[in-house]
Amino acid sequence: MFLTNVVIGYGSRGEFSTGLVLVPLLLQAWLPMAAVAWNIAAWSLSVEALFYAMFPFLWQVTAKVRSSVLLTLFMALIALVAYLRFRYASGSEFRSTTFNFFAYFPVFHIPSFAFGMTLGRIFSQARLSNGSHSALFLGGVILMLAVLFMQPLGFWTDDLLMIPLFGCIIFGASGVKRSYVILNNKYINELGEASYAMYILHLPILAWWMLFKRSTGVVLSQNLDFALYFIITVGFSVYVFHRVEGPVRRLILSGGVLGFRAEPKKQIGS
Asked: CA of 261: how far to CAs of 125, 246, 249, in Å?
C-alpha cells in the first residue's frame, strides 16, 4: 500500500502523511479523516485488529450467558448502530469526516462481530440435523436475494437484515453433509480463505494494472481487461494468503501472540 501511494498516489497529501503513522499500526479507522488513507478497503484492518484483541475477553465474559440472550442483545446493538448511522449520517458525502466516522469507526462493528462469535459458539455446542442446517442455508440465500432485489432499506440500515441473513447462510452451510459437494471442494475453500486478501488488495492491484496499461499503451476489450485483472487479483491474493495471512493466523491461533489457544477447526460437513 505504501509503494502504491508513493508511485501512483492516492488521496490527499495530508492523508498520505497521516497514514505513515496510523496505517502500519492498523489504527487508521480510529481517526475519521484518515480512515481510508492509502487504501479504502484497509479500514477493515483496524476493525480486524480490534476484533483479535477483544475476542479472548468477549469469549470469556459471555461464556455463561445464554446464547439466545446474547443474540438478542447484539441484534439490538446492531439496530442501535443502524439508527445512529441513519439519523446522523444519511446524506453525508462519501469520504467526508461524518461518513468515515459512522461507516468505519471500529467500535460500531463490535456488535456484528459479537453476533457472529455467538453463532460460532452455538455451532460448536449444538447438534442440529442436516435438514435444519440445509433449511437455514437455503432460506438465508433466498431471503438475501429477495432483500438485494427489493432493496427495502438504505446503505446505513442494510445491516439490520444482511447480518442475520449472512449468519443463517454461514451457520447453515457449516453443518451440511457431503451432499453439498461444492462446499467441500478444496478450490472453493481456497478462494474462501483468500477472500479477505482479495478485498484488501483489489484496489492497489487495480491501480497498478491501470498504470501498466497507461505505461505500455496496451488497449484491451472491456471483457478481456476485467478477466485479466480478475485472474491477477485472485492469483496474487491466494499467494498472499499462503505466504502472509496463513502463517500469521497460525501463529495467533497457537497462542503465540495473544496467549489464547483456539480449538482445532471443525470441518464442513463433519
From this structure: 18, 16, 12
